[in-house]
Amino acid sequence: MSYEVSYEKKTSLHDLQKNVIVNNHNVYKLGIIKEISDTDVDYLLRIECFDRGINVEVNLPHEIMMELEKMISDSLSD
């Protein structure tokens, strides 16, 4: 499987967007927005796959995002 990042935009320290092309045809749009309030840090995670019509948007608290990061890191190291 091959992939390339065709677009990357970091509008601020709290907003990152990427477009990723997998196997020259599946286009994924990934985005993370960090939302900081007086008491909490939350993340808005967006994943879109244009070829398959999949669109996921979820708000995650900081603790869940940290566990998700650990799970992804662990799965990639095996």
**Radius of gyration based on Cα positions:** 14 Å
**Tally the helices: what do you get?**
1
**Strand content range:** over 45%
Order of helices and strands: EEEEEH
Oligomer: single chain
Strand order of the largest sheet: 1-2-3-4-5
Gap between N and C termini, in Å? 17 Å
Q: Helix coverage percent of residues?
A: 10-25%
Strand elements, count: 5
Structural class computed from helices and strand pairing: alpha+beta
- Tell me about the largest β-sheet: 5 strands, antiparallel
| Average pLDDT reading | 91
Form type: globular
Low-confidence stretches: none
Give your account of this protein's structure:
The chain has one helix at residues 62-77, and strands at 3-12, 15-22, 26-36, 41-49, 54-61. With 78 residues, the protein is an alpha+beta fold. The model has no long low-confidence stretch (mean pLDDT 91). Helices cover 21% and strands 59% of the residues. The two termini are 17 Å apart. The chain is globular, with a radius of gyration of 14 Å. It has a five-stranded antiparallel sheet with strand order 1-2-3-4-5. Strand 3 and strand 4 form a beta hairpin.
List the helices and strands and how they pair.
Blueprint: E1 3-12, E2 15-22, E3 26-36, E4 41-49, E5 54-61, H1 62-77
Antiparallel strand pairs: 1-2, 2-3, 3-4, 4-5
